[in-house]
Amino acid sequence: MAPPPTLDPRQRIAHISLDEETIIWRNADVEQERRVAIFDLIEENRFRPVRSSARGATGPYRLKLSVQDGRLSMDIQSEDEQPLETLLIGLARFRRPIREYFAICDSYYQAIRKATPAEIETIDMARRGIHDNAAELLLERLDGKVETDFATARRLFTLICVLHIKG
User: Fold this and answer.
1) Nearest CA among 72, 116, 65, 120 for reference residue 92
2) What pTM does this model have?
3) Res 152 pLDDT > 60
């Protein structure tokens, strides 16, 4: 997939939050993944909501993620918290990647505690592969709605996974 055109440096996410009511339970490993994904995302991302930009919005943006009726809701606001738009993205095509990602992450967290470095590296490579494929899928689903890059999509997928933790 070709990189998006060069974006105005204001076309980015400045604040991101997750609907805490969606998340029923998470362990310390998942909480660390969430913190790192949010930190990395805020530090460096590319995010231009197409419709809002066409109406003159320039960013930076505030983004709230939640899951509603099996769809990802991306509530986009201006930096001063004025509503801009809400994107709804069906999650049916993400069920399998999310399930696979959870399974490989469980293996990875267990391996960190007792496996050899070679075993950990093998599991981590598989984990990255699943994560990368899911990020590509997210880029496809955002096409025409949000211009973004691979790294941003990858971090957003991590946060989508966190929203699916049911305990």
Assistant:
1) 72
2) 0.88
3) yes
